[in-house]
TrEMBL record:
GO terms for cellular component: membrane. Keywords: Glycoprotein, Leucine-rich repeat, Membrane, Repeat, Signal, Transmembrane, Transmembrane helix. Belongs to the polygalacturonase-inhibiting protein family. PANTHER family: POLYGALACTURONASE INHIBITOR 1, POLYGALACTURONASE INHIBITOR 1-RELATED. It is a single-pass membrane protein. This is Leucine-rich repeat-containing N-terminal plant-type domain-containing protein. It is found in: Cell envelope; Membrane. Residues 58-95 form the Leucine-rich repeat-containing N-terminal plant-type domain. SUPFAM superfamilies: L domain-like.
Length: 359
């Protein structure tokens, strides 16, 4: 992906348990750039503690102990002792000047149980809040987090959280990163999320969301990332997305329908497009593509027409148009003959390499 290094606001990046830098790189290949030159802010916890001053704000320490009492199963919190500074505790990071807690990262699923306590809203300087891989963490997102006016990163992934995605998240005006994937959230996507002026990364995939995509989501910041695949969303993609410019769009494995050709275009910055396993229906023949596009998966839809010659000019790393209604000869050139036959199978009458020759 192209990177913009002009005057970046660079934050520290989190490795959720650093036994897998490969996994981190895969995640960051998608979220490396949010909006303009602002990079994702998530904290690196590659060691049990963060080396810094032992000083600790007494109120922050009290709140952290309340959180521990509500959800902890020893020994994950064994470093959280009353005779040590909370800035040295595992999963906690403090500002080096003020010693106020600015990041809380709970990422060990076997030792956390219960609901996210209301006390998380009593850390007023918190910028990053992470609950990751905690299958025994259940219930809704507490409304108390609306008190976290400095919060930029909300990462609740691979848990067992449920209930609706709350509309009150729109009160956190500094949020630029929301990841609520791999939970049991249900109901519609709140239209109010578009009221977050800095939001550049929205990931809600692998939940049980229903309803249509809000029209207002097309108003997010330029070059945003929207990943809402593997839900039960239905209806048409709003026309507001035609005027937007996204870097990543993932609508895969839903029940969406209609024409989405307007999501493509030569002047778009779209790099990753996964619209697979839906009910999309449009003529692919005259669709034009941006040279930025490196991932396109359209499999299992009702797309018709032929493959446009413009595909030969792309450096697509991933390409799949199988299980559609396409016909005609596969254009020769570029990378189109490199892909496996499986990328083209089960269409109406596609032919030519890598499929059998046209008759």
């Amino acid at each position: 992906m192209p990177h913009d290094f002009m005057n970046p606001t660079l934050y520290i990046i989190t490795c959720i348990h650093c036994n897998s830098f490969k996994q981190l790189n895969q995640e960051m290949s998608i979220i490396y750039r949010l909006s303009g030159s602002v990079f994702v802010s998530i904290l690196l916890f590659c060691y049990p503690t963060w080396t810094q001053s032992a000083k600790c704000n007494s109120q922050d320490k009290k709140v952290l102990k309340e959180i521990e009492k509500a959800i902890a199963i020893p020994p994950y919190f064994q470093s959280w002792t009353t005779d040590s500074g909370c800035c040295e505790w595992y999963g906690v990071r403090c500002d080096e000047i003020t010693n106020r807690v600015i990041s809380l990262n709970i990422d060990d699923g076997t030792v956390v149980a219960g609901k996210i306590p209301d006390a998380v809203g009593d850390l007023p300087y918190l910028k990053t809040l992470i609950f990751h891989k905690c299958p025994n963490l259940k219930g809704p997102i507490p409304e108390s987090i609306t008190k976290l006016k400095n919060l930029t990163t909300l990462w609740f992934t691979n848990n067992n959280l449920s209930g609706p995605i709350p509309s009150f998240l729109s009160k956190l005006k500094n949020l630029d990163y929301i990841n609520l994937s791999f939970n049991n959230f249900s109901g519609p996507i709140p239209a109010s999320l578009s009221e977050l002026p800095k939001l550049g990364y929205l990931r809600l995939d692998r939940n049980q969301l229903t309803g249509s995509i809000p029209e207002s989501l097309g108003n997010l910041a330029l070059q945003s990332y929207i990943i809402i695949g593997h839900n039960q969303l239905s209806g048409k993609v709003p026309q507001s997305f035609a005027n937007a410019d996204f870097t990543t769009l993932d609508f895969s494995k839903n029940k969406l329908e209609g024409d989405i050709s307007f999501l493509f275009g030569k002047k778009k910055t779209l790099q990753t497009a996964d619209f697979s396993r839906n009910l999309f229906q449009f003529d692919l023949s005259k669709v034009e593509f941006s040279n930025n596009l490196i991932f396109m998966d359209l499999n299992h839809n009702k797309i018709f027409g032929s493959l446009p010659e413009g595909l030969t000019k792309l450096e697509l790393q991933t390409f799949n148009v199988s299980y559609n209604r396409l016909c005609g000869k596969i254009p020769t050139g570029g990378r189109l003959q490199i892909y496996e036959q499986s990328a083209y199978l089960h269409n109406r009458c596609l032919c030519g390499a890598p499929l059998p020759a046209c008759k």
